[in-house]
UniProtKB/TrEMBL annotation:
Biased composition (Basic and acidic residues): 105-117
Organism annotation: Durio zibethinus
Protein's gene: LOC111289887
Highest taxon, organism lineage: Eukaryota
Protein name: Protein MHF1 homolog isoform X2
Any single GO BP term: DNA repair
GO MF term set: chromatin binding; DNA binding; protein heterodimerization activity
InterPro entries xref list: CENP-S/Mhf1 (IPR029003), Histone-fold (IPR009072)
Organismal lineage: Eukaryota, Viridiplantae, Streptophyta, Embryophyta, Tracheophyta
Region (Disordered): 1-21, 105-140
Pfam families in UniProt: CENP-S (PF15630)
Length: 140
């Protein structure tokens, strides 16, 4: 019985630590969003009220959290453990302008990537598939 109580205390401590990290990330995100909103307002010769800036930063933080969950699901559905650029583009499917900008950005990145890097990556995938199909039978 005492072991279960110890585990729950450890779990509670880990949960509190996770909450603390999440709060820190949220606060930093909000500060960045506020800074961007104020800079844009100043650049455009406008004023923006504090409640509006706070609302925008909260909405942006919630949207980012939902976007992260969607990207994780897209990658999982594709059988991958990590998110790639295609997942990000798919997430923007409702905003054609954003999706087009992301595709253009992806193409620019591919153009900047050295040709030898692209060939090596494709070759390593074939090697990975070949290695995955090999079954090692230990000596008895």
């Amino acid at each position: 019985m005492e072991i279960d109580e110890d585990r729950s205390d450890v779990e509670k401590e880990e949960e509190e630590e996770d909450d603390s990290i999440s709060d820190l990330l949220r606060d930093r995100f909000r500060l960045s969003a506020i800074s961007i909103a104020e800079a844009e307002a100043k650049r455009n010769g406008m004023e923006i009220s504090e409640p509006i800036v706070a609302c925008i930063s909260d909405l942006a933080f919630k949207y980012t959290g939902q976007l992260a969950k969607d990207l994780e699901l897209f990658a999982h559905h594709a059988g991958r453990k990590s998110v790639n650029m295609e997942d990000v583009i798919v997430s923007a499917h409702r905003n054609e302008h954003l999706a087009a900008s992301l595709r253009s950005f992806r193409n620019e990145l591919k153009a900047k990537e050295p040709q030898s890097e692209r060939k090596r990556k494709k070759g390593s995938r074939k090697d990975d598939k070949a290695t995955a199909s090999v079954v090692h039978i230990p000596d008895l």
